[in-house]
Write a structure and sequence with these properties.
The protein is of the alpha+beta class. The chain has a single domain, classed as Immunoglobulin-like, CATH 2.60.40. The protein is built from four helices and ten strands. The strands form three sheets. Strands 2, 3, 6, 8 and 9 form a five-stranded antiparallel sheet that branches. A hairpin with a 2-residue loop joins strand 4 and strand 5. The longest helix is centred in the N-terminal third of the chain and has 25 residues. The protein is elongated and about 75 Å long. The N and C termini lie far apart (63 Å).
């Protein structure tokens, strides 16, 4: 009886170890986006390079009719890296949170109210150790 319990524990342990390793292999890497500024910002991603305009930005979740992702001052968010496969060159735009929350999207586009635009490839992100820092 004691041997059966011991065998059960060992088999269960190795099955759990195998499953956790498989999960790690299949999980996509995540990009850490750090906001080192003293104010909240929004980020947006565009896959339409060489078009560098902000009119085709993909955001999450919706605000002002577009998708946006907010990052508070001195905070970080993690974004799955699968979007890197959508285009060889990705553009990430950073916007002032007050501007995004107080203005319609068409005004932001018309005035090009962008704090910073980063252009990068998957190789660039790997060189940056999967971290993009603003500013």
């Amino acid at each position: 009886m004691k041997n059966k319990i011991l065998k059960f524990i060992i088999v269960t342990y190795f099955c759990a170890l195998n499953c956790s390793c498989w999960y790690l292999i299949k999980t996509e890497p995540h990009i850490k986006i750090k906001n080192n500024s003293g104010k909240a910002i929004y980020i947006g991603v565009s896959y339409s390079y060489p078009d560098t305009g902000i009119n085709k930005i993909d955001f999450v979740p919706y605000i002002n009719g577009n998708k946006t992702q907010k990052i508070n001052a001195y905070d970080s968010v993690y974004k799955g890296s699968s979007f890197l496969d959508m285009s060889p060159t990705i553009e990430m735009f950073f916007f002032d949170a007050d501007v995004v929350e107080k203005n319609p999207w068409d005004s932001i586009v018309a005035h090009n109210w962008v704090l910073k635009r980063y252009q990068f490839t998957k190789d660039d992100v790997e060189k940056w150790h999967w971290t993009i820092t603003y500013p």
